[in-house]
Amino acid sequence: xxxxxxxxxxxxxxxxxxxxxxxxxxxxxxxxxxxxxxxxxxxxxxxxxxxxxxxxxxxxxxxxxxxxxxxxxxxxxxxxxxxxxxxxxxxxxxxxxxxxxxxxxxxxxxxxxxxxxxxxxxxxxxxxxxxxxxxxxxxxxxxxxxxxxxxxxxxxxxxxxxxxxxxxxxxxxxxxxxxxxxxxxxxxxxxxxxxxxxxxxxxxxxxxxxxxxxxxxxxxxxxxxxxxxxxxxxxxxxxxxxxxxxxxxxxxxxxxxxxxxxxxxxxxxxxxxxxxxxxxxxxxxxxxxxxxxxxxxxxxxxxxxxxxxxxxxxxxxxxxxxxxxxxxxxxxxxxxxxxxxxxxxxxxxxxxxxxxxxxxxxxxxxxxxxxxxxxxxxxxxxxxxxxxxxxxxxxxxxxxxxxxxxxxxxxxxxxxxxxxxxxxxxxxxxxxxxxxxxxxxxxxxxxxxxxxxxxxxxxxxxxxxxxxxxxxxxxxxxxxxxxxxxxxxxxxxxxxxxxxxxxxxxxxxxxxxxxxxxxxxxxxxxxxxxxxxxxxxxxxxxxxxxxxxxxxxxxxxxxxxxxxxxxxxxxxxxxxxxxxxxxxxxxxxxxxxxxxxxxxxxxxxxxxxxxxxxxxxxxxxxxxxxxxxxxxxxxxxxxxxxxxxxxxxxxxxxxx
Length: 656
Prior knowledge:
Layout: H1 27-43, H2 50-59, H3 66-76, E1 78-82, H4 89-98, E2 107-109, E3 132-136, H5 142-161, E4 165-169, E5 186-188, H6 194-204, H7 217-225, H8 228-245, H9 251-262, H10 266-275, H11 279-290, H12 296-309, H13 325-331, E6 334-336, E7 342-344, H14 349-360, H15 365-376, H16 383-399, H17 403-414, H18 423-435, H19 440-452, H20 458-475, H21 477-490, H22 493-507, H23 511-526, H24 532-540, H25 550-563, H26 572-581, H27 585-599, H28 603-623, H29 627-647
Parallel strand pairs: 1-4, 1-5, 2-3, 3-4
Antiparallel strand pairs: 6-7
Helix pairs in contact: 1-18, 1-20, 6-8, 8-9, 11-12, 11-14, 12-15, 16-18, 17-18, 17-20, 18-19, 18-20, 19-20, 19-21, 20-21, 20-22, 21-22, 23-24, 23-25, 24-25, 25-27, 26-27, 26-28, 27-29, 28-29
């Protein structure tokens, strides 16, 4: 009997790596990672971007005492929003800021990690004129909560000077630590009507149930206990039920099916696992729960891997003397559907199985992590199956307080020699950690440490670039900018190019981020720590963006001062772009002021700058016949020369 050995390729649309060594062409897998994170972002709105806030505002139901919070914010420019967990504190704080005028500044969340900043937990550099600032302390620990309160008074002084507003979400469980002088800014909101929240969400999806359809006992019991985020998810499931049912059924059917998915199966699972004395049956239950809706072969492979990780003794009976998978699935209440995929018969049973094992077998959680790593190393699973598996594992890891398992998996899936198809899985694992309310801050801190470390693998750097630009940038763009900057500084080759491109896109997406990027580049160039900062500056800089701001011009002068001292061919094209911008008289004075000041009265550098400007003028004269445009360029070069002479103390000839 012969056996054929080869590589199995599933869903290959680009370069394929079928060996055990590193995969150098990752473009296809990186695109898959980006697509997976964008799909998640489309389903979960993080509400900082304006479009997300508008979406949220349409579905927002004002909680009790929101008007008091609104009045406090307008009166003192600061409001501290408190409330029970699940009452919508963060959403209420965000909507208070969203209601304010957008004539100046921007709405953004203050960083919750120290990064490259001073020891102070709040930095006044984050405040610009007219800003609306959100500070979420709902999951802060005692030390951070106390530290923020100690500097909040000084921060508020800067806030008033910039005509900015601040909304702080308080940690309700640390209410005893709130300083007495801050209590006057505090408003404790109540929980809005969950039924009204559900109705508002449904109405936005063109689903308008009657009062009778929303008054059932089963729904009332669910709404009385569910956090508001779960109420919103219920509305999403009802919408999904309508979209998949087509013309069949009505609201009552969609609602019943959606509630059934939330039905608590914990007691049934506990009884079933207690009656299962064989380890294989339990392994089959967990494997199916983790890879629910996959093929029988995938479930069998996961089952065998779990038994192996747990050192379970093999069954000594010959294979044909044992039951086949059809019988084994029937024994645990599962069946194979017409599509060839295996599912439990009871709705919600798979979720209850996962929760049972992670909750009541805490001593094997590390082995479950190793098992899941082994399962995803196999390329036979489809991308949707892999994505669902990662989401299920992440849910249990985060729920049971083991975020380090996701970080560990991301490292293992991106180390040298790992299969390239794991890139998307690693990116999704980190993105799920970033989105978690309890552990998001620790993931942002971990990514910061990875971005700064010289030991971080190239594969992990690739994943961090995707995660920062596609996930973190949506909710915490300031922190994403910092991490991408560190990656761009420290990374060479194609990965470095991708880091610089991602950094440039993010910095140019918003004037506030652009200003922050220039400040960082100027500081790095001043301390002469990173020569890469000069190249990053030339890639990011825009000649007219915020050039009227003195703070921006100061940063530009520092950066240009360093750039102009490098070989001419490294900066000449950028200077020509700046000279092009001088065609607009509104910006000419500031643009030329920056370039001339950057020469710092250095005759050699000034001469090089002037020669480049002459070449720019002659190139245009050869390429264009427009006399008016030629005159404009001649006038710009003449203005540049006059400013260079003035900077060097050379008086005009007509005024000796």
